[in-house]
């Protein structure tokens, strides 16, 4: 009977840990990526969830073009200063969160005006200060 309780405790501990990591990952993405990048949040909020080495890998003209986080933030800030019309508010739907140890991959659909605009694949690592987004690839819907 002791063995069954021990196994049950271990299984429950693993489940609770994974659930805690999943919640933390969703929080980082919701705050820094959806509210920050996609909905024009502050550079401080964005940087909090992205590792400085982050690079988005864009597929352009049958080639891969890197886009570092600081360039992305600069482009967002430039649009704000030019008073460009903001994009419609983005909303995210988490399709999957796959965690293995200190690495995770998230599939996220982004919607604008109830239309799917992007499917994003975000890669994260868990650092001592928490989960950080380190890379992104995506598909943009026509």
What sort of overall outline do the alpha carbons produce when their principal axes are compared?
A: globular
Total strands: the figure is 6
Oligomer state of the chains in this structure: single chain
Helical stretch tally: 3
Order of helices and strands: HHEEHEEEE
The SS-based structural class is: alpha+beta
Q: How big a fraction of the residues is strand?
A: 35-45%
Low-pLDDT runs of 5+ residues are none
Q: What is the class in the CATH system?
A: Alpha Beta
The whole-number mean of residue pLDDT values reads: 90
Read across the widest sheet, the strand sequence of neighbours is 2-1-6-5-4-3
Specify Rg, calculated over alpha carbons: 18 Å
State the helical fraction: 40-55%
Number of domains as seen in the coordinates: 1
How far apart the termini lie comes to: 59 Å
What is the CATH architecture term? Roll
What do we call the CATH topology?
A: Nuclear Transport Factor 2, Chain: A
**Biggest β-sheet, characterized?**
6 strands, mixed
Write up this protein:
The chain has 142 residues and is of the alpha+beta class. The protein has a single domain (2-140), classed as Nuclear Transport Factor 2, Chain: A, CATH 3.10.450.50. Helices cover 40% and strands 44% of the residues. It is built from three helices and six strands; from the N terminus they run H-H-E-E-H-E-E-E-E. The chain has helices at 2-38, 43-49, 69-81, and strands spanning 50-60, 63-68, 90-100, 103-112, 115-127, 130-140. It has a six-stranded mixed beta sheet. A hairpin with a 2-residue loop joins strand 5 (115-127) and strand 6 (130-140). Helix 1 runs antiparallel to helix 2 (43-49). The model has no long low-confidence stretch (mean pLDDT 90).
